[in-house]
Task: inverse folding
C-alpha cells in the first residue's frame, strides 16, 4: 500500500480477532488500524475490564489461549481461588496474568489516561505493531433486552451464558460518545484506504461501533471499499450467540440476514459482502441489496486460514 | 467482663496488631472492638488498599506471613510477575491472595458499600470474631512533610522506604471525616469499658484516629480507663519508622517523648502509660505528665508474649 494508507478493521472479540490476526500478518505495521468494540466493557471488582480489546491484544501478540478460546495461554488462577475462599463473585473468571492487564488499565484510567492511551501502552508492552483503538474513549454499555428483562451485556453473555431470549439491544451512553480521536484524525487526514467489517456479532459487536455518532456516515462518505465478512456460515455462528440472536429476533439464521441488517441500518455502507462457499446459494439475494457478493472459504482454524481470508478481503478492496 | 462491655483498641498496622491479637485471644468474641487507622489507605492500580485493616484481618485470622512481617503466609506472585512484564509500577507488592482482598473490597466499595460494611464482610469471610472497624468510612489521607517535599504516605513508607527526613504530617480530609458509625453507637450506648492505645506509630497510626473530629474528647469524657502502650522500647521502635521520626522531629527518641506527645496533644486522655522494663528509669518523668506509669516486658515475639501483655493491660484497666 501507499505510504500512510491504512486498512481500518472494525471488530469485536474472538470471531473478529481471527481475521484481525490474518490482516496483521498480511499488512505492514503501519498499514492496519483496528477499531474495537468497547460496549462490552464493564466494571468488576473495581476493575475496568475491556474484553474485546484484551482479546485483540492477546490474539495479536500470540498470548491467547488456544484451548479455552478466551484469556491467556499458560494462565494461573491463584487470585480466583482466593476470591472463592472469600466468597466473592467469580462468575467472570479472572486469571492471574489477565488480571495484570486489568490492573494496569484500571490504574492508568484512574490516573486520568484515556482508554486509547492505555490501550496503546498495553499494546506496546505486548510488542504489538498494529494500532488497536478502542471505538471510543467515552463509556458505552450494551444492554440486552431479554424475555427476563434488561441485562448488562456481561451478565447476559457470561453469567447467563446467553440463555435468555433476546428482543433487542441498546447502547447506553452512545449518543454522547465520540468516536476514537486517533481514528478521527486518520479519517480527516485521508489515511484510510479500505474498511473491513470483521466477522463479529452484528448486533453486539459491530452495531455499537458503527452507531457511534456520525461514524458510519463518515465511513460511507470516504469512497473507499467497505468489505464486510459474514459471521454466519451455513446457518450457524462460528463463535458466540449471533445465530441464536437472529432466530430470537425473528430473522432467518443465515448470512443474508446479516447483509440485510447492514443494508437496512447503514444504507450504502457495505460495498462487498463476503460469504462462505457453503452459502453460495444466498449470493443472488444478497446482491439484490446493492452489494457485491464475494464467495470464499471463511472458516479460520489455522493461521494460514486467517491469512488467506485476509488476502482475499484485501484483494476485494483492490489492495 | 459484664455483658455488652467492650474493650476498644486503637491500632495501626503491624505493631498494634500484635497487641490486638493478644487482646483477641484474652477476650471473648463480643468483648473487643478494634478501631483501625485508615489514613494509610490509598488507591493503587485502580484498587482501594487498606494496609492497616488488612494487617489486622490477616493477623487476627492467623493468615499473616511470619517471615515477611506483612502480607499473607503462603502467598504467590503470579500477578506481580505479569505486571512486571507489562512494565507496570510494582513498588507496592501485591500478592495474588492479598489481591483477592483488595478486589473484593474495591468491588463492594464501587457498588456503594461502606468501608465498615466491606470490612465486616471480609472479617466474616476470614472467620474473625472481634469487630474490626475502620476509623472512618470517609477518606482521610496522611501526607508526610519531608525535606524532599510532601509525599503521600505509601510513597514515603513503601516506595521511599521512610528515607526522607520528616518535618510533620497532615491528614487530608480529616475535618470532614466522621468517626466510624458503629463505634459512635457503642460509645453512645455506653458499651465501652476501657480503651487501649496499641503500640503503633503515634504520628501516622494513632494520631489520625484520635484526631477524627471530636473523637478523643469523647473518649476522654467516657471516664473509663485509657491505657496507652509505648511503641518505643529502649530508644528504638520495634517496627517501623517511629524512632526515626522522633529524631527528625527533634524529640528525644524514647518512650517519654511518646507520652509527652499524647499528653500535649490529647490532654487528660491517657490514664496509664505502659513502658517496657528496659525504660523503667523514665517512669518518674512520665508520671509528671499526670499519667500512671506501668512497667512490664512489652516485646511481643510469641503469642504468649502478646497474651501476657494483653492481660497486663486489661488488669491495669481493672478488667
Result:
Amino acid at each position: 500500500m501507499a505510504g500512510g494508507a491504512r486498512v481500518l478493521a472494525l471488530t469485536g472479540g474472538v470471531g473478529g480477532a481471527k481475521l484481525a490476526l490474518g490482516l496483521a500478518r498480511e499488512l505492514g505495521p503501519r498499514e492496519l488500524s483496528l477499531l474495537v468494540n468497547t460496549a462490552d466493557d464493564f466494571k468488576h471488582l473495581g476493575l475496568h475490564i475491556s474484553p474485546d480489546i484484551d482479546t485483540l491484544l492477546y490474539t495479536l501478540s500470540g498470548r491467547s489461549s488456544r484451548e479455552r478460546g478466551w484469556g491467556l495461554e499458560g494462565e494461573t488462577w491463584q487470585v480466583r481461588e482466593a476470591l472463592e475462599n472469600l466468597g466473592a463473585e467469580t462468575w467472570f473468571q479472572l486469571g492471574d496474568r489477565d488480571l495484570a492487564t486489568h490492573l494496569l488499565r484500571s490504574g492508568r484510567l484512574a490516573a486520568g489516561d484515556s482508554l486509547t492511551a492505555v490501550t496503546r501502552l498495553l499494546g506496546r508492552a505486548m510488542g504489538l505493531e498494529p494500532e488497536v483503538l478502542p471505538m471510543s474513549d467515552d463509556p458505552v454499555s450494551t444492554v440486552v433486552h431479554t424475555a427476563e428483562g434488561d441485562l448488562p451485556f456481561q451478565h447476559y453473555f457470561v453469567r447467563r451464558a446467553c440463555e435468555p431470549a433476546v428482543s433487542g439491544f441498546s447502547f447506553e451512553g452512545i449518543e454522547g460518545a465520540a468516536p476514537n480521536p486517533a481514528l478521527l484524525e486518520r479519517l480527516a487526514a485521508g489515511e484510510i484506504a479500505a474498511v473491513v467489517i470483521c466477522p463479529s456479532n452484528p448486533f453486539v459487536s459491530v452495531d455499537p461501533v458503527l452507531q457511534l455518532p456520525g461514524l458510519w456516515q463518515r465511513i460511507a462518505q470516504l469512497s473507499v471499499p467497505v468489505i464486510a465478512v459474514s459471521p454466519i456460515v451455513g446457518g450457524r455462528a462460528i463463535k458466540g450467540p449471533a445465530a441464536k440472536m437472529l432466530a430470537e429476533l425473528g430473522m432467518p439464521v443465515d448470512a443474508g440476514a446479516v447483509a440485510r441488517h447492514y443494508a437496512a441500518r447503514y444504507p450504502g455502507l457495505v460495498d462487498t459482502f463476503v460469504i462462505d462457499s457453503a452459502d453460495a446459494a444466498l449470493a443472488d439475494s444478497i446482491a439484490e441489496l446493492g452489494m457485491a457478493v464475494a464467495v470464499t472459504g471463511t472458516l479460520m482454524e489455522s493461521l494460514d486460514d486467517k491469512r488467506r481470508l485476509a488476502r482475499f478481503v484485501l484483494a476485494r478492496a483492490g489492495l
User: Anything to note?
Assistant: Chain A has a mean pLDDT of 95.
